[in-house]
Design brief:
Length: about 475
């Protein structure tokens, strides 16, 4: 029986090269290797339409601009007690896979980070979560001051489906924020993935109702800009942004954690009665009914007015309505009134001059130390009393000659005051990859910081460490 070969395969027993398991494994390894390599994100289009490498400092400068704007708006009147409803789009658009692993996972991760940052910066405020899916809006959590309770409920509601309805979400938020006291600001922050709003009625009437109720509506979009969402933010005095990447989405959300400026015509400043409850003992024998939905528990906090027990702070007493807080909550709200002034950027030429000055001062200090050690050795066998060894390891001569302090100050100018990161490349030609991309200076103490420490000082610490040491 004759056997015929066609293109390297036996006739009648053709083998499909695509089914080769070895090739599949090789392709999977290649795919895993470049799964996180988003090379297109390192390119940008210039004014002439040509592709150029992305400026590594462009994103840092944009982020610094937001920090500077927030610091400069500190003297603007702000609402310290906020009531915010976070509206999350869980329609079928949230299940799209254009973000890894999906829009839903990225959106919920950013929402959880925002919830924690919101309560960290606004300990006297309250937040609730509303979800949009299947053409309706549902209230996932009530307004409260517990971030972990909000996140736990959000983790249990990850199902997506249907369309998003802006009208239903706004109507629900207006009703939920209606009982808010006049001294509190009313806000709605929507995280939207859909590019359309499927509404049962007139969505423009819902927008007007939100504006009449003095509710500030802000939107962060994951897909494209939507006209009706832009109109809602403009008519209510909110902000609208569209995320360009996962990191940009997180930054867009976190920018709403700080209190916004109070709108024109807001209620005049007034005193708010608050109570500082005492912590109840954790002894099981002291268990009482705690909270609005009574649970027999030990511990909790006792209202100073009506002696009712509540489980968490801050909150409103479910019996007498008194706002209950602790002293750390009040202290953490202070930095919004008097924030750290924005640091000034130091140019590359000035950084290079500081590096050269530090190198020259270091050489002079070494020479002075060597001469002082030699003189001390000739006079007394080492510079110490009775000819003993120097107590400071041989550096006492430089300090006595007055070279120690200037040398230390010049050398410190090359390093970040906060984390000791190099602020300039190694002048000897060493590896300069660890040098800071951007150098900034505090206007009060004149110390230098890297960009990461600048962000940490202005967004988390809210105090300059060098200025604190000088004020002691």
């Amino acid at each position: 029986m004759a056997t015929y070969y066609i293109a390297g395969h036996i006739a009648g027993e053709l083998i499909d090269d695509d089914d080769d398991p070895g090739e599949d494994r090789s392709y999977e390894a290649f795919e895993r290797r470049y799964a996180g390599d988003h090379s297109w994100e390192r390119l940008q289009e210039d004014a002439q339409g040509r592709l150029r490498p992305v400026d590594p400092t462009a994103e840092l400068r944009a982020r610094r601009q937001r920090i500077t704007s927030a610091a400069r708006s500190a003297r603007v009147r702000k609402g310290m007690i906020r009531y915010v409803l976070l509206v999350i789009d869980l329609s079928k658009a949230a299940a799209v896979m254009d973000m890894r692993p999906s829009r839903l996972s990225i959106m919920t991760g950013a929402a959880k980070a925002f919830i924690r940052a919101f309560f960290d910066q606004n300990p006297l405020s309250q937040l609730g979560v509303v979800v949009m899916r299947n053409g309706v809006a549902a209230r996932l959590t009530e307004l409260s001051g517990s971030p972990e309770a909000q996140i736990a409920q959000l983790n249990a509601a990850m199902a997506t489906g249907g369309e998003a309805s802006l009208q239903n979400a706004l109507e629900l938020c207006v009703e939920a924020l209606r009982p808010v006291p006049p001294y509190g600001t009313r806000e709605v922050l929507a995280l939207v993935a859909a590019i359309a709003s499927v509404d049962p009625g007139d969505v423009r009437a819902a927008i007007r109702a939100a504006a009449d109720a003095k509710i500030r509506v802000s939107v962060v979009g994951v897909a494209a800009e939507v006209h009706i969402l832009r109109r809602a933010t403009e008519e209510t005095g909110g902000a609208y942004g569209v995320a360009l990447s996962e990191q940009h989405l997180a930054e867009q959300l976190l920018s709403h954690a700080a209190p916004p400026p109070a709108p024109p015509g807001a209620a005049a400043a007034e005193l708010v009665r608050m109570g500082f409850p005492q912590r109840a003992p954790e002894d099981p024998a002291a268990a009482v009914f705690v909270g609005e939905n009574p649970e027999l528990l030990a511990g909790g906090y006792t209202c100073p007015r009506c002696k009712a027990r509540t489980g968490e702070l801050p909150c409103r007493c479910h019996v007498c309505g008194l706002t209950l807080i602790s002293s750390p909550h009040l202290a953490r709200s202070y930095h919004h009134l008097f924030p750290v002034e924005p640091f000034e950027e130091v140019g590359e030429e000035e950084v290079q001059e500081l590096a050269e000055a530090a190198a020259a001062a270091s050489e002079a200090a070494d020479a002075a130390e060597a001469s002082a050690s030699a003189a001390g050795g000739a006079a007394g066998g080492g510079g110490a009393p009775n000819g003993g060894p120097a107590a400071d390891g041989g550096g006492g001569g430089a300090a006595a000659a007055g070279w120690g302090a200037p040398w230390r100050e010049a050398a410190a100018a090359l390093y970040c005051y906060g984390c000791l990161r190099p602020l300039a490349p190694d002048p000897d030609g060493g590896d300069g990859d660890d040098a800071a991309t951007m150098v900034l200076r505090c206007g009060a103490c004149r110390q230098l910081f890297c960009f990461e420490c600048d962000v940490y000082i202005h967004e988390s610490l809210h105090n300059c460490p060098s200025c604190l040491l000088r004020s002691r």
